[in-house]
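We close this part of the discussion by returning to an individual protein. Part of our work consisted of pairing the sequence of a single chain with a tokenised description of its backbone. No coordinates are needed to read the tokens, only the vocabulary itself. The amino acid sequence and the backbone structure tokens for this protein are reproduced below:
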Amino acid sequence: MFQNKLIETDCGVVGGGLAGCTTALELADADKKVELFVKNRLVENCNSYLIAGGLAAVQLPDKTLNNDSVNFHIEDTLKAGKKLNDVKIVKYCAEHFFTDAIQYLIDKGVKFDKNNGSFDLNREGGHSKNRVFHVSDITGMKIMETLGKLVRNHPNIKVHENHMVIDLITKNKIEKSKGKDVCLGFYVYDIEAEFVRTVQCKATFIATGGLGKVFLYTSNTDTSTGDGFAMCYRVGLPLANMEFIQFHPTVFYDVLAVTEGERRFLLTEALRGAGAILKLYKDHGEDFVFKYDPLGSKATRDVVVLIEDIEMRKHGSNHVWLDCTKINKDKLKSNFKNSYDFCLSKGIDITKEPVPVVYAEHYSNGGVLVNSNSETEIRGCYVLGETAYTGLHGATRLASSSGPECVLFARLAAKHFLLNSDDVPSLKVPLWQSGETVESKDQITVDYYWEVIRRTMNSLCGMSRNEERLIAAKELIESLHNSINSFYWNYRVSKDFLEVRNIADVASIIVESALARKESRGCHFREDFPKTNNRKYLGLIISKKENKPYILKLREVN
């Protein structure tokens, strides 16, 4: 029988995507001992690996380049965010994305595509200029292979694959006290050995990625079960704007994949930026998005997806068509090789014919509320990447902004800890106790929870929402919570059950937040409140354990 050994280290990093790997490298380079935990395998099993489009940045912050400028980038980001962005954060990001994210990756060995000696920059929906750095259309793959190799070879980093974090350990939880809290570590489940380890560290960095598997259809990896959102919520941290779920407009439509509820292939938004258009029918020539928006298929994701949803409901369609035939054939085969090869494997030559696509959950604009150093209200607890709400994205994320955000805030968080690491209190943490729990033989019940929650979210809290459907979703998910909590305390933990516990918590937060925002803004659309209400809802919807969601006005944030 394995023993519950205590792992003591300087820093614990949870998640091995862009944010997690960058954080681990920055800390390790400063001679800190880092324990890095990933739920599956390092590199391949994270959403960062799936980045197809690239990373947006303005190359020279102090001057105009290729008719672009930092101010243009700021304007595009604010326009996409529908007035909910933190303006200071947007400005800081636009000024630092190239120097502190793109150049950082270049220095690490990432080779972004060039054309005649200059960077070959793409344009995506919502961007007014070409500013997306990329490596063909497999940017994420190449970045993660580079960072992953550096992480694996670093003497100060120990990688734990197939480990899933359960909950955070804090000073207030141990001492059963209130007041300013401190994070002391976390409990992590070893999936292969089937036992729980206790990790004690001076700082915890949570970069667990997205929540796509809370919905039935998603472009995310199978590891994206909202783990970081849920564990932070359970420890009492506030989450912001969890109603803003961004759906990607062009995910390959495959009948078999729909039936199995598996991740479907994402056709990068850069295709639409390069001239691809969305059509209702395979043999129609018109861009149907133009009927609603002057930008047509180059509009931001929230606009395109909503229009897709309207037209699909109106015509009873299961999907629409992405026509890439106006793009130069050689460019399609080189710049978009991954998309070209995938579609060809399905019998579709995108240089000659349209490809069937549908929208699917892609990104959470909301997340755990953090400050400008990505630290939470709990000292020593940092949240990064998609799990965090930094204020950059507002009500809609501008395409290709999350990648550089991961790198920039990972470096800021690491720097903040390094400057303050000597002032962290040291307390002994209690080892994980299984008590009188027994091993569960009831996989059917866990599968039932999993299926019901995800189908409920897709049907009742998807792209189009209203009061009636949201209340139905709330009641259904609440009815499962008691059973799930009872299951947790009576049976030994397993990966499947821990994931179900997390998606139940996150689904509940999303529904409650969607009910609280009685307006339509960005990627949150209420059929019963179709207009934007700046007078009442110009702020963040805050969700906190044992509290009703409330609005935090922007003036209280900025």
The chain has a mean pLDDT of 91.
